[in-house]
Amino acid sequence: MASKLSFLGLLAATTTSIVSAGPCDIYASGGTPCIAAHSTTRALYSSFSGSLYQVKRGSDNTTLNIGPLSAGGVANAGAQDSFCASTTCLITIIYDQSGRNNHLTQAPGGAFRGPEANGYDNLASAIGAPVTLNGQKAYGVFVSPGTGYRNNAVSGSAKGDQAEGMYAVLDGTHYNGGCCFDYGNAETSSTDTGNGHMEAIYFGDNTVWGSGSGSGPWLMADLENGLFSGANPKNNPADPSISARFFTAAVKGTANLWALRGADATSTGGSLTTYYSGARPSVSGYNPMSKEGAIILGIGGDNSIGAQGTFYEGVMTTGYPSDATENAVQANIAAARYAVTSLVSGPALSIGSKVSLRATTSCCTTRYIAHSGGTVNTQVVTSSSAAALRQQATWTVRAGLGYSGCVSFESVDTPGSFIRHYNFDLQVAANDGSKQFREDATFCPQTGLGSAGGGSSFRAWGYPTRYIRHYNNLGEIASNGGVHVFDSPSLFNDDVTFVVGAGFA
Ligand SMILES: *[C@@H]1O[C@H](CO)[C@@H](O)[C@H](O)[C@H]1NC(C)=O
DSSP characters for 19-48? Predict the structure, then answer.
C-alpha cells in the first residue's frame, strides 16, 4: 500500500514535470541541452523568469525589458503595449534564456552592408507579428528585408564538425525568395568563408540552390554557398511546400549526418516529419563541416539581407538531438497553442467604402492623400474642388491584397490601381497580381500616433517599422528615424496620422 502510494506520487510528479517542461528542459533530458534559447513570445525553460527581449521606444529612446508573466510562461505583452503606447517601438535585444548570454542584437554589416547609417541591419518593429499563446497576446519578430540580428561571439555553440540541433517556430505564410531568412549557426566574420561554414534553418522559396516539391516555401538548411533540401541532386521531392500558418522547423547535424524535420506547430500529433536524414552533400567542403558558431536571425551568414520572415521562438543545442526529443519539443510547442490575432486597431475602415485621408500635421490640415498620375502626394481638396481632383483624393477600401486582415486603397479614378510602396515611395500602380505587389499594397490601420489624438496611422504590412507619411507633400513609407530624409523623427507622429473621412467622389 505504502509503496503503491509513493509510486503513484512519483508518477504524478513525473507527469507534472513533463507537462510543465519547456523545450530546453526537454532537450536537456535528452542529453542535448540548449546553448541558446531565443523567444519574444514565451519562456523556453519551465523555471525561466528573466528577460525575454528588450524594446526601445521612439518617444524618448528609453528601453524596457519584457519578461514572462510567470516563470515558464508567456511574454508580458501588456507591459510592451503600455510602454509603446502612442509611439513606435523596436526590438533591440532578443535575450538568450540558456544562461550563456548568447543574446541576439542588431546585426553589423558583413560582406553586405546593412541599411542603417552605420552599416548595421535594421531592427524589427515590436508590433509587426502579434499572436496569442493559449489565448494570451505576445509578439513575434517580423523580419523585413534589411532586418537582422546576430551574435558573433557565442559561448558553447558547435564548431567544425561538432554535433548540434536547432528548431524555430516561424510564420509559414511570411517568406520570399531573397537570401536568406535563416536562424542558426554562421560565420563569426559576417562574411562567406566557404562551403560548410554554416548550418542554419532556412525558410523561403528561393530556388537558386535547392528546392522541394511544389512551389514552396520550403525548409532547407543553409550550409553556406547552398540551401540544401536534401542530398544531391538539388531537388528533394520529400521536402514539402509549407502552408501551415505556424511552422516548426528543425535542422540538426553531426559527422556526415544531418536532417531536416518539420511540422505544423499547432499539430498536437507530437511528431515532426523527416524531410531528409542522411549523408552530407558530396560537394567539397561539407564533409567534414567547418561550422564557426555565430548565431544569425533573418539574414545570411555574409549578412545577405534580401529575405523576409517571422520568428517566434527557437533554440540551438549541443549534441545531435534524437528524433524522440524533437518530437517531445513539438508536442510542447503545440501545447503552447499559437494562434493568430488582429493586426489592426483604431477606427474601423469598412471594406468597400470610399474614403478620404486628411493630414493632421498643423501645416497641412486641409491636405488629403491624393495622386497625380503614378505619384502619391497630398493636395488641398474641398467638396467644391474639380471633379477630377475629388476623384484623385478618394480611395476605395479593399481587404488587404497581401493580407486580408489589413487593407488596400484602390484608386477611384483608376480602378484596378492601388496605393503601393516602391523603394519606400508611395505610388498608384496597376495590380500586376504578383505577391510583391500585393504585399506592397497592404497597410495595417492602427490608432493614430499623432499628438492631437484620434485618427489612424497606416503601417506597411511588409515593413511594420514604416508608416504612410506625407513629407514635403509627397507620400512615403517612413520609419521614425532612419537613413532617408523622410524618416526624420521631427513631426513623425503627426505626419503619419490621418483622419479617415467620407470620399469626395
Ligand atoms: C533617439 O536617438 C536617435 C539616434 O541616436 C536620435 O536621432 C533621436 O533624436 C533620438 N530621439 C529622441 C526623442 O531623443
Answer: HH--HHHHHHHTT--EEEEEESSB-SSTT-
